[in-house]
Amino acid sequence: MRKSNSVKNTHNRGVASPPEQLLADVAFAQIEEMIITRRLPPGSMISEVQLAAELDMGRTPVREALQRLRQVGFVEMLPRRGTLVAGVDIRQQLELLEVRRPLEELVVRMAALRATQEERSNLRELAKVMAAAAERGNMEDWIRAGGVIHEAEVRATHNSMLITSMQPIHAQSRRFWYLHIGQNRAYVEGAQLHAKVLNAIAQGDGDQAAAAANGLMQFIERFTRSALDTF
User: Fold this and answer.
1) Residue 85 pLDDT more than 60?
2) CB 3.0-4.6 Å disulfide test: which of 3, 74, 171, 198 passes with 123?
3) Mean local confidence (pLDDT), 94-117
């Protein structure tokens, strides 16, 4: 009888709480957003206990999320001190752009070829969302729209390896923009360049999408170098 109760209780616990890996994914996404938006600013120390309480979960998924964030360069593990939010290195951002440029071309070409009609319609709508944020000069909405756009483009490739590879690259880029963008001119120009990419993908024109992506990357590199000049 005791064995039967034990099995029943274990089963109930499994149903009541999400799988631990799912919790780690949730923790990763939420802590990543805190770092990108500077709720956890560069140079700050992270408390696993406080994060677990804020996210309403145990320390194990938080610890796993922090390990993943260390792998993408968002945090550093300091012996006997704890977890530190890493700074944003502009020169490292330029190195990242060298890697990102050819991958972005691959992404947009594959998306132009493989996107479903629903995905193409969604990409057109996302161009309008970013343009509206640019017109308002709303930094958070503009950057958030950029994140959604990049995720939608990559998912439209229907290539799981690209999806996995581009996620940390785009996250690092969003973090950089959040720290350095502050001019409405950059919002508008960036939105226009994104729209060219999105519309080319929606039309199924891989060559035009690649050319537009190259123009966007040139804009991003110019912006990054201008940020470097201010230091």
Assistant:
1) yes
2) 198
3) 97
